[in-house]
Specification:
three-stranded antiparallel beta sheet; 174 residues; Jelly Rolls
């Protein structure tokens, strides 16, 4: 009789254990924002401007990079938007008059902007970076079973076995 009690509870424990194992493997969103003050973030003449964004630890499923800057000549705001294609592993940009080089470097996204194509004369140019936002979805690499979930599942299984055994003893006693 005791063997039958265990045979009913073991599949229930296994299902709960598998559900708890896969609970941490879902995609998570991330965001990293940089804002420059009026005294930093300047691109003068033909000198490139470089900066880095922190990237999450895991596999990036989708990403976008949104850069805002101001042309000092006329005060117009430029919006440069790029999207990361995980399949082809390349960035696609909405502007062709800026050269934006970027690459993944371990835990960072390294971005360099060459803005000399905005005007005909690269030596008569001033551009101020306002902000840059790096957002997207990623799957964390470490998808280990969290210890509290494991203990919770084990406790639920033991409570289930004890409750079922108690039910069987009560039923025989009546």
């Amino acid at each position: 009789m005791k063997f039958k009690t265990l045979s009913v509870s073991v599949p229930l424990i296994a299902v709960l254990f598998i559900l708890g194992t896969f609970a941490g493997a879902s995609a998570t969103s991330f965001s990293d924002m940089l804002i420059w003050n009026p005294f930093s973030g300047w691109v003068w003449n033909d000198e490139p401007f470089s900066y880095v964004h922190q990237r999450p630890d895991g596999i990036i499923n989708s990403a976008s990079l949104s850069i805002y800057g101001e042309l000092i000549e006329d005060g117009s705001i430029l919006h440069m938007a790029g999207t990361w294609d995980a399949q082809s592993q390349i960035w696609t940009w909405n502007r062709a008059d800026l050269t934006i080089l970027n690459f993944w470097n371990h835990e960072i996204l390294d971005v360099t902007i060459f803005a000399d194509q905005l005007t005909g004369d690269p030596y008569d140019f001033a551009f101020h970076m306002l902000s840059s936002e790096f957002t997207g979805d990623y799957t964390p690499q470490n998808t280990e079973i969290p210890e509290p979930n494991t203990l919770l599942l084990l406790g639920m299984g033991l409570v289930g076995i004890a409750s079922y055994g108690r039910y069987r003893i009560k039923r025989k006693g009546c």
